């Protein structure tokens, strides 16, 4: 029951004079001629049926998370979230908490790879940098670090090709790697360079981030309530899980 089904149901309800909320509740189910059975229990009631109402709830959730300019961000996010079906409390909370973590409270739309201490680098990349000595050549060297950690992965060319640096994380949550950039550019029918620039804007980051979320099955994972599985899909591991959990404790009350 994704965004296309939801939109079709809203149009169907409007055509029949029902409350057009995209929820297959008892009245809608009866109108469908299904009076002998209960509505399906797996349908998820959306937070809001229109962009303005969703924006209000998203703004409240971001304010609870202490994000700067929550209203401005909510206006950028509400439309893409609605189209992507990120409209239940659980889906919205998981999406916003992970997006907020990845971007330091929606303040950094480009991944920061400038590290000054081995300890910080080892926390961020525990499987790649096992000792302080391994970190030292990359301290204060974001380009070299990007090539080391992203080269030969995520559709990028090998280390030294420039792809690791060109396709560092951008947007919300950060879209990373040539393969993910290429998929999103094809979806939007724009050149890669244009997408790179768009991901550094609120509108572009919101559109691409919601699209990436859906393509990677994160609505369905969010529905399970398993934050660890969502985090692994977003991050590739559990780095940042504690921070996401803290943000999740703040956001859901504001999304009700």
Please outline the helices and strands.
Layout: H1 3-15, H2 26-31, H3 51-64, H4 70-84, H5 89-102, H6 118-124, H7 132-135, H8 142-150, H9 163-166, H10 178-188, H11 192-198, H12 202-215, H13 218-224, H14 227-235, H15 241-250, H16 252-255
Helix pairs in contact: 3-4, 4-12, 5-13, 5-15, 10-11, 13-14
Report on this structure.
With about 260 residues, the protein is an all-alpha fold. Helix content is about 60%, strand content about 0%. The protein contains 16 helices and no strands. It has helices at about 5-15, 25-30, 50-65, 70-85, 90-100, 120-125, 130-135, 140-150, 165, 180-190, 190-200, 200-215, 220-225, 225-235, 240-250, 250-255. α10 packs across α11 (about 190-200) and α13 runs antiparallel to α14. The chain starts with a helix and ends with a helix.
């Amino acid at each position: 029951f994704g965004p296309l089904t939801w939109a079709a149901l809203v149009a169907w309800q409007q055509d029949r004079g029902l409350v057009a909320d995209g929820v297959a509740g008892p009245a809608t189910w009866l109108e469908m001629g299904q009076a002998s059975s209960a509505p399906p229990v797996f349908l998820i009631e959306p937070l809001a049926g229109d962009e303005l109402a969703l924006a209000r709830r998203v703004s409240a959730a971001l304010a609870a998370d202490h994000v700067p300019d929550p209203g401005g961000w909510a206006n950028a996010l509400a439309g893409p979230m609605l189209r992507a079906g990120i409209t239940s409390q659980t889906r919205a909370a998981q999406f916003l908490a992970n997006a907020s973590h990845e971007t330091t409270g929606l303040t950094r739309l480009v991944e920061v790879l400038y590290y000054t201490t081995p300890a910080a680098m080892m926390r961020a990349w525990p499987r790649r940098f096992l000792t302080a000595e391994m970190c030292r050549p990359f301290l204060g060297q974001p380009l070299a670090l990007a090539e080391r950690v992203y080269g030969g992965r995520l559709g990028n060319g090998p280390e030294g090709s420039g792809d690791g640096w060109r396709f560092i994380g951008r947007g919300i949550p950060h879209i990373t790697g040539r393969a993910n950039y290429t998929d999103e550019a094809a979806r939007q029918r724009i050149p890669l360079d244009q997408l790179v620039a768009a991901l550094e804007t609120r509108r572009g980051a919101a559109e691409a981030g919601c699209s990436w979320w859906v393509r990677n099955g994160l609505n369905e994972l969010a529905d399970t309530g398993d934050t660890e599985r969502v985090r692994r899909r977003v991050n590739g591991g559990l780095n940042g899980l504690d921070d996401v959990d803290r943000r999740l404790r703040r956001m859901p009350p504001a999304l009700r």
